[in-house]
Amino acid sequence: MILNRPKGKQRTSKEFVITDYYEILNLQKALMEAKFCDKPNDHYVSSSPIIASLHNRIVDHLASLERPSGGDWETWRRIDPSRREWSFAIGRIAYKSKWLEVSRSEKAKIASNLIAPFKVSAGLLQQFLIEADTQAKSV
């Protein structure tokens, strides 16, 4: 996996390359802990679009590496209300003070960032938003 600098940013160092499968896998595990831990130190981590994008790219890369050996990341990435990560993501809504004020489409973007690297169907996304609204109103 090669991580390049964003366009428009001044290059201050050489690119950062991770080629070892277990390093990439453990980076994914560290991101899972940071995003879905019981007591986060930095609540922004969970909903960061940058971290969500990076996490999705890492899992995509792991899936491509494991596909020939039968790895099933697509099944793992399906989230629903029975998964602990669903509850943790809903719980993070309490820290989004303006949740009830933003548009439905903005809520969908925030929700997608909160649940990354997991994927949801449109129906489950709507269920997530309803639960998140309920959570935000109760805080």
What does this structure look like?
The chain has 139 residues and is an all-alpha fold. The protein has helices at residues 21-35, 44-47, 49-66, 73-77, 84-92, 104-115, 122-138, and strands at 2-3, 16-17. The protein has a two-stranded antiparallel ribbon with strand order 1-2. The longest helix is centred in the middle third of the chain and has 18 residues, at 49-66. The radius of gyration is 16 Å and the shape is globular. The termini are far apart. The model has no long low-confidence stretch (mean pLDDT 89).
Give the overall form: globular
The main pleated sheet reads as: 2 strands, antiparallel
> How are strands sequenced across the largest beta sheet?
1-2
**Which structural class do the helices and strands define?**
mainly alpha
- The residue fraction in helices comes out at 55-70%
Low-confidence segments, ≥5 residues, pLDDT <50?
A: none
- Sequence of secondary-structure elements: EEHHHHHHH
- Average pLDDT metric: 89
Helix count, DSSP H or I runs of 4 or more residues: 7
Task: Give the radius of gyration.
Answer: 16 Å
Q: How many strand segments?
A: 2
- Hey, roughly how much beta strand do the residues contain? under 5%
The N- and C-terminal alpha carbons lie at a distance of: 41 Å
